[in-house]
């Protein structure tokens, strides 16, 4: 896989994460203020991680180095960490998301 294809795949993953984050925010908006206070820091932390991942992919895509294997290894680790964070959060919010996702786009 060349660097451009890799970046394209990683940016697609970032886009999917952003969609999940938007859904999390919509679910959190339905919570009472005490519950919101518990969930918003998690969402904000994940947003920062996603932004960092996107910035790193953008940098790789723009620089397009000949030997990009060290950056790929770094990104693979970063994407694994962020992906796990989102998956855990997704499971925690799972029951509320079903109703919100049905109403998205209505």
Task: Name the features.
single chain, about 110 residues, elongated, mainly alpha, about 0% strand
Summary?
The chain has 106 residues and is mainly alpha-helical. The chain has helices spanning 3-29, 33-63, 69-103.
What would your notes on this structure say?
With 106 residues, the chain is mostly helical. It has one domain (3-95). It contains 3 helices and no strands. The model has no long low-confidence stretch (mean pLDDT 80).
How do the helices and strands line up, and which of them pair or pack?
Elements: H1 3-29, H2 33-63, H3 69-103
Helix pairs in contact: 1-2, 1-3, 2-3
Shape: elongated
Number of helices: 3
Q: What composes the largest sheet?
A: none
Strand content: under 5%
Q: What is the chain-wise order of helices and strands?
A: HHH
Q: Low-confidence parts, pLDDT < 50 over ≥5 residues?
A: none
User: What is the total tally of β strands?
Assistant: 0
Q: Helix coverage percent of residues?
A: over 70%
Broad structural category:
mainly alpha
Mean pLDDT: 80
What is the total number of structural domains?
1
Rg over CA atoms: 16 Å
Distance between the termini: 39 Å
């Amino acid at each position: 896989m060349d660097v451009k294809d890799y970046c394209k795949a990683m940016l697609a993953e970032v886009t999917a994460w952003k969609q999940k984050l938007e859904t999390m925010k919509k679910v959190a908006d339905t919570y009472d203020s005490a519950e919101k206070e518990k969930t918003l820091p998690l969402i904000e932390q994940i947003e920062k991680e996603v932004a960092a991942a996107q910035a790193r992919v953008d940098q790789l895509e723009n620089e397009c180095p000949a030997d990009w294997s060290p950056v790929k290894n770094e990104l693979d680790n970063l994407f694994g960490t962020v992906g796990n964070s989102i998956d855990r959060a997704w499971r925690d919010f799972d029951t509320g998301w079903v109703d919100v996702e049905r109403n998205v786009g209505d």
